Structures are given as C-alpha cells and as structure tokens.
Amino acid sequence: MRCVVFGATGYVGGRLVPALLDAGHQVRAVARTPGKLEHAPWRERVEVVRGDVIDATSVAAALDGQDVAYYLVHSLHQRDFVDLDRVAARTVADAAASSALQRIVYLGGIAPDGQLSAHLASRKEVGEILIGSGVPTAVLNAAIVIGSGSASFEMLRHLTERLPAMVTPRWVHNRIQPIAIRDVVHYLTRAAELPAGVSRAFDIGGPDVLTYLEMMRTYAIVAGLPRRFVLPIPVLSPWLSAQWVNLVTPVPRGIAVPLIESLVHEVVCREHDIAEYVPDPPATHVERAIELALTRIRNADVPTRWSDASAPSDPLPTDPDWSGGSVYVDVRELRTTADPDALWRVIEAIGGEHGWYSFPLAWSVRGWIDRLAGGAGLRRGRRDPRRLHEGEALDWWRVELLDRPRRLRLRAEMRVPGRAWLELYAAPGDDGGAIYRQRAVFEPHGLAGHLYWKSVAPFHDIVFGGMARNITGTAEHQEVRPSASQPRLGGT
C-alpha cells in the first residue's frame, strides 16, 4: 500500500517507516525540514516531501495518491499544544475527507474515565476529530511506551538510576499497562490492513499491569542496581513532581508536567478488541522491554529519541541588518597542525560525554540554571558518541546543519532572551594542517536580550576561546596518539 507518514522525524515515526518498508509498503515521509531525514538509514527507500500539518496546501499535496495516512504528530513541547494539535488534526481531517485516502492511523493515549489531564484530553480530542473526518480511522491508544529514547523511558531510567532513595507522590501506586515500542510499531504497521468498515479507537498494551513504583523497582533489578527505597508523600502534587523530574532527568518541565499529570490516572487497557483484526506480537514483558532498551543505549544504537522532534526554527541571521543591526557575533579562528579529518572528528564528537572543551563548571552551572527555568539543560546528551545526525538533540542544542566534514551548526534550545547559534568549521590549511573556525551568533529579543549578551561577554574569552584552543589541542593529541581515547575536557 502507499503510506504517508506525518511525524516521520519523531520518536515513533522514525521507527515505523522502516517497519512499513519491510512489510512491503511504499512510504512517503512528511517533514517540516526534510534535511532532518537526510541521514536516516532508510532515506533512499522513501519519498520525502516538505509539509506542515497546519498548512492545508502541503497536507493535501502529501495525501495525494496515498492509501493510508499515519498521523504521529504532537506539539507537547509547546505551551499551547492543545490548540495547536486541535488545529493540525482538523487540517488533516479536512484534507483527508477531500482525498481518495482509504484509512487514517493515529497513535493516541489511553483515556480513563473522569477528569482528564490536558495531555490525555488533547490526544482523545485529536482521535475524535480524525474519526469524524469520514475516512475509516484506527486510533491506537497506548499508555507508557518503553523503548530506548522514549520520554517515558528516559524519565523512568534517570529517576531510578540517580535516586537510590526517594520521596514520591501518591501516583506512583497507580496501575499502568506499559507497552514495548516494538509492539507499538507492530500494531501500527498492521493497522494499515484493517477492513474498510472499521473506524474506531482501540486500546493497546503489553502483557503486564503494574504500578509505577513496581516498574521502577523492576528497572533497578534489570539494570543491576540495589533495591530502591521509596517513601510516598500524599502532598506532592503532579506539578511539584514535574519540577523534580525536570531537575533529575533529561525530560524538561514542559514535557514532564503533561506526562506526570497523565500518571495521576490509572492507565490500563479496558478492551483488547484489536486482537480480532491484528494478531498479537510475541509477548514483550516489562523486564524484556527494559532489557532491550538498555542494550540499545549501551551499544549506542538508539535509532530515534523523544528529543528528535523540535519546533520549527527561523533561519540563522547572517547579516546584522537582518534584525535592525542587533545581532551579536563572537568569532574565533585558529590554525592547527592537526589533519582536517582529525579536527572534524573532534568537532563531530562534541557534547554528551565528551563535554564542551572549556570551563566545565561554567557549562554545568549554566545547564542547571536552564533546567530550573524549564529548559533542556545538558542532560539530553547525544544519541551516538561519535556521529551526529541533522535534526537531533545535542545537550541543549539542536543540530541544524551538518555539512560533513566541514561545518556543524547548532541552534540553542536553552532558555535565553533571544535566539542563539554555534557554528564550528574545519578547513584545510594553505601550508598543511587545518584551520578551525568557530562562530557564536546571538539575536537578542528586547532589552533583556541585550543585557544578557553584555553580562556574559566578559566570559567569552574563557568559554569560547578555551573551546577553540582545546578542540584544536585535542585534534593534535589524537594525531600523535591515534589509538588513545579522546580525553574529557568539558563537563556536562
């Protein structure tokens, strides 16, 4: 069948596309920024088109000639996600009703009875809008998804690993029915073949029903950690819990709040009618799902992460006149005896466990400040310790451009009164060696933005100058000792 996937750059979409291809389907991947899919291992097997789910024209073009549309888009990382998801769902539903589309498949969340969190209510509403399009729609509702790189799993992993003893809210005793990402992809893939008369929501879940506390203790056992001691405190609200998650895990407050608000409810499948149409996959119990996720993390083989999805960005302002002359730039350039390829290897390995090559304490403090402000901080790390991919998250940056082996451009996703970029270049030297060029660009928003730049400018020689010196020094060191592992020069 001809399948179009909205959300192909996201956590689930990036895993669904190769599964659809392996099942023999043709795939059209829709992305706001097609370049983010440039390095996907399945890129040459799909048709990639530019599109935005709130743009009716691009949605209609994406649906043209397709049999099945997968809708895997959520705006959880944005404050007004409820309104955005409603508008996007209506745009896709209207376009689908006017097309020759045979089916819509949507991944939502299990919605228990009673007052729902904004997150669960929004997902339920999106499913209802798509079903109301008149096009046969399968809404697959899942609770917590366990898989390497999922937001729910990263929250579970960091809470359990970093806190041997913890004070917890009452909701850790609520029952949940997690499902492995491989099983989610199984149901999504097979949903393309549902009979034409089937248009409804289905609950999907794994074989285990347990409390969040039991899942944390299960994680500790699988990961080989000592037993975790937990003291529940009824007064801890979901909002307070989210602040704690924001500090301890890579999941920022903007995502942690709706996720935890959803955990206040018991999210357990109320039916398993999907089995009438789709055979169940081999049972993936919680222990096995956690083991598979940890294996991928240890092997640096995480194909997609929750942080892969990002808000659209405006272009880098290269000309000060672009914004009325108020663009600040810090440029550093150094010549090095290192080979250009050796220099590039250091550039591409920046961040994560390798740090940022200057003043580790300053980077760590800035990261904590960003976390307190609800930003990404430095804990998102990187997917692979050596190779980057365009569009992926790198600590508090986003890889906006990767022109291997010459240029790396990072867009800041930290909380600052403006927009910031960091560009790193490697070029051959005229008389051998290489030239390293580093450019930090900041476009301030209002007076606060100007004051921010002025306040940090005195430290730029230490931070940016030290970064340039240490990156070139590391490249030279690696050429002398190519078998040695790269030293850690900057803390995260």
From TrEMBL:
Residues 7-113 form the NAD(P)-binding domain. InterPro entries: DUF2867, NAD(P)-bd_dom, NAD(P)-bd_dom_sf, NAD(P)-dependent_oxidoreduct. This is SDR family oxidoreductase.
